[in-house]
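Researcher: I'm preparing a figure for a lab meeting and need a structural model of a single chain. I don't have an experimental structure, so a prediction will have to do for now. The sequence is pasted below. Please return the structure as C-alpha cells so I can convert it later.
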Amino acid sequence: MASTTIDKLKPVGRYALGVEWADRHESIIPYKGIRRACACDTCTVPEPPVVALQGEHPVRLEQLGGQSLFVVWADGHETILLTEELRAMCRCAHCAGEPEYPISGR
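Model: Understood. Here is the structure written out cell by cell.
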C-alpha cells in the first residue's frame, strides 16, 4: 500500500525525521515520539525510564522488507516500528483531520 511505503528518509533539523511516502505525502516526526513508541519490555514498564536526550537521536535507520523501520539510538537501544505505526504518528493537518488547513497542500 502506497500510504505505508517509504520512499525516502531524511533528518529534519536535529530533532525530527522526515518521511517521504510513496503516495507523495510527507511527514515530519519528532525523534522523541519515535523513541516513545518503542514497544519493547524495557520501554513499556509502568513507569518508563527517563530517556536521556542523547538517546533520542538515531545513529542508524534501516528499512526492513519495506514494512518496518529499524532504529538504533545513540544510547544503543534498538526500536522496530511497522511503517503503518510510523505513518500514524504524522500529525500534519490532513492526518489530524483538519485537511482545510494543510501546510504542504497534500
